[in-house]
Design a protein that fits this description.
Blueprint lengths: L20 H34 L4 H9 L9 H17 L7 E5 L7 H7 L1 H21 L6 H18 L3 H24 L2 E2 L2 E2 L3 H15 L1 E21 L5 E19 L4 E3 L11 E9 H8 L6 H10 L9 H9 L13 E12 H6 L12 E9 L2 E7 L9 E5 L12 H4 L1 H21 L3 E4 L28 H4 E4 L5 H18 L18 H41 L9 E5 L1 H22 L10 H11 L4 H4 L3 H29 L4 H15 L1 H5 L1
Antiparallel strand pairs: 1-14, 2-3, 4-5, 4-11, 6-7, 7-8, 8-9, 9-10, 12-13
Length: 695
């Protein structure tokens, strides 16, 4: 089900349209049709990618295999490589202890003067007193006595002079850092908050995983936001009726605006076909497949033309949605046979457009704009149902024209839709499948002999296919033996040849995608058999990951967090978090730093293990830092100080007991009496006790 839109815009007033709404709707519908037609060029490739990921052959290939009774086994290398790369990227993009982004003040941050003055009140008071003293002394020397109004003017001038004398930069930097940290906390909370009005949306990390997976498989992932909704806090409160009976009712106790975000499937996105890069987009269309219930709820949202929606629903009582060709095929691939080829009853296709329109076009469609804005170009949001515009409004978020962020698997300046792993592994996957099928077919053929039968030699009732042990075979002609009637041919085994071919293509897959040792495969040859060699291989493999993470930082994290910052600067009512900040995306930087630290830790531990450094080291702190570099939870692994002390005492007691038992056995072998052995035990225990050792 599609997410419902923002609920912050006000309903448009009735006014005479400046343009023909039907003409504008027809133009936008033609624009959408062109975008949908242009996208068909990549839909076939995506369908192949999806089949490859699901481990299914193309229909023509599968029909040919069935016709010639060949093996239909599918070795799902693409599935493994996509899942491995997604897991690896998510592990690096979302470390346990830190975030992959941050909010930092600019080198010379700007702040309101009253905030700085409030922080420097003592210094300002002293400066004002000094300046006022100098000014009053000068007036007294001239026998001038200022009145109250003049004193106020002198105080105001003295305040400005005292403020100008102070070096405010250290204070501004400190305050800006505190505010930036609070802004970062607020944005982090907004990203993690998933519940609103009883609706649970995916979190920031969950949406990013969907974006990364689409990019790895199809070549492009899409994130949308920040979108705005009004969130209500509801609580059950008691109420009494006229008879004094108490009943509990749910009531709204608070209402506030909140940003949210969502991952958008590439199948639901229709971008401007004239754009090669996201920065060149003039518009983006998004498909929402809504039920009749969703559409009725949409009619109640502010800004939507409820009358037009209800009229359209009366005209299409069973819905207007019909399965597109790509939808039929995706349902077949996903084995969703319930709806294959059937109409989508009680469902409607609603299209949302983000892009540019003139003020006159928007005003004619019902947007709240002044007449002098008719020739201006605005970032706008338009919703269409069928051939009808059901909403048109100016983008409420300043500085964000089109709230879609596109993450390419690899940068391609010649096409808006780059290739993903599915397309890149097309030929290696086919090569592996061919080798595995040949190996399977050969194994079946060579598992037993092929038998030729001379049918003319057999009796009429003999069944040549009934090959059993201890069977009696009847022949119709005299003078024939069984070797003349039957002949067996052994098919040679070619498994080793086919296995070598399969390994060749598997190695080719490793060169294109992530190496197999990154998914936990320990069958690594050469330098990978040593710890240092494997570390070198991991470092080399991370070069590709660094590019992917850098692209994610540049294309998704940085612009989206910057949009979240803009939203809070514009809509958040808390003025204490606002300031002159910049967004820092640190995914690739954290990977490089982690890689460097991982290489330095073994050498550093060997160095610090030298006895000369022992008096200066905090062993537990060093161990905590070492565990953090491996993303292991130190708080769950390490003992507390009390637990460590108890553990040491237990180990000492066990060691002392073992020494006592060993000495007792030795003394008994020497022929001592039990009394003598007990005396020696008491002496030994006194020496091993802390008090005895001190004495």
């Amino acid at each position: 089900m599609s997410q419902l839109p923002s609920a912050i815009s006000s309903a448009p007033q009735e006014r005479k349209p400046l343009v023909d709404i039907g003409t504008l709707a027809a133009r936008l519908k033609a624009e959408l049709d062109d975008a949908m037609q242009a996208r068909k060029m990549v839909e076939d490739r995506w369908l192949q990618d999806l089949r490859q990921y699901r481990g299914q052959y193309e229909p023509a290939v599968l029909e040919r295999l069935k016709k010639y009774r060949r093996s239909q086994v599918y070795y799902r290398l693409t599935t493994q490589k996509v899942n491995t790369l997604v897991a690896r990227l998510m592990d690096l993009l979302f470390p346990q202890k830190t975030k992959n982004w941050g909010i930092e003040p600019t080198p010379d941050p700007m702040l309101p003067e009253d905030v700085i003055m409030s922080e420097l009140r003592d210094e300002l008071a002293a400066g004002v007193q000094e300046i006022m003293g100098e000014q009053l002394a000068g007036l007294q020397a001239q026998n001038i006595i200022p009145d109250a109004w003049a004193v106020q003017n002198l105080q105001a001038q003295a305040l400005q002079q005292a403020y100008a004398r102070l070096d405010t930069r250290p204070v501004r930097i400190r305050i800006a850092r505190e505010r930036a940290a609070e802004m970062e906390r607020v944005i982090d909370d907004q990203l993690k908050e998933c519940n609103a009005n009883g609706l649970r949306r995916p979190s920031w990390q969950q949406n990013c995983r969907a974006v990364v997976k689409d990019a790895c498989l199809y070549g492009m992932g899409v994130l949308k936001g920040p979108l705005i909704e009004r969130t209500e806090t509801r609580r059950y409160q008691p109420a009494k009726d006229a008879y004094g009976n108490v009943s509990w009712r749910e009531q709204v106790v608070a209402s506030f605006l909140r940003p949210y975000h969502e991952a958008v499937s590439v199948w639901d996105i229709f971008p401007d076909p004239g754009a090669r890069l996201p920065g060149e987009l003039r518009f983006v269309w998004q498909l929402h497949l809504m039920t009749d219930k969703d559409l009725r709820e949409l009619a109640r949202f502010p800004g939507f033309n409820a009358g037009a929606i209800r009229k359209y629903m009366r005209e299409f009582a069973d819905g207007d949605a019909r399965l597109e060709d790509w939808e039929v095929q995706t349902r077949e691939i996903n084995e969703d046979n319930l709806s294959v080829g059937a109409d989508l009853r009680n469902r409607f296709r609603v299209y949302e457009r983000w892009g540019f329109l003139t003020g006159g076009e928007l005003r004619g469609a019902g947007a709240e704009l002044a007449e002098e804005d008719d020739d201006k170009v605005f970032s706008a949001n338009v919703w269409m149902l069928g051939d009808t515009i059901i909403k048109a409004m100016v983008n409420p978020l300043e500085g964000i024209d089109i709230p879609y962020y596109f993450y390419p698997f690899q940068q391609d300046d010649t096409s808006f839709w780059p290739e993903g792993l599915g397309s890149l592994l097309r030929h290696p996957q086919a090569g592996v499948n061919a080798a595995v099928r040949a190996m399977q077919d050969n194994a079946a053929a060579s598992s037993g002999p092929m038998i030729g039968v001379n049918m003319a030699a057999l009796a009429p009732d003999e069944d040549p296919t009934a090959i059993l042990a201890n069977r009696v075979v009847l022949f119709d002609k005299s003078g024939l033996n069984i070797s003349e009637a039957f002949q067996a041919v052994v098919v040679p085994s070619c498994i080793e040849h086919n296995l070598a071919l399969a390994n060749y293509w598997s190695n080719a897959v490793d060169e294109i995608s992530t190496p197999r040792f990154q998914s936990g495969d320990g069958n690594v040859s050469g330098a990978g058999k040593t710890a240092s060699g494997l570390s070198m291989l991991m470092g080399a493999a991370n070069i590709l990951l660094k590019d992917h993470i850098k692209d994610f930082d540049d294309c998704v994290v940085a612009p989206f967090i910057r949009a979240m910052f803009r939203w809070n600067m514009q809509w958040n009512e808390d003025e204490s978090i606002k300031g002159d900040y910049e967004v820092v995306a640190s995914g690739s930087q954290s990977l490089i730093a982690k890689e460097v630290r991982a290489q330095q830790i073994p050498m550093l531990l060997n160095l610090l293990g030298m006895p000369v450094f022992a008096p200066y080291l905090k062993e537990k702190a060093l161990l905590e830092v070492t565990l953090e570099q491996t993303d292991l939870p130190a708080e769950r692994i390490l003992r507390s100080d009390d637990e460590a002390r108890q553990h040491q005492q237990q180990q000492a007691a066990m060691q002392a007991q073992a020494q006592v038992q060993a000495l007792a056995a030795q003394l008994e072998q020497q022929g001592m009496t039990p009394e003598q052995i007990n005396q020696q035990m008491l002496l030994l225990m006194a020496q091993l006790s802390p008090q005895g050792g001190a004495q």
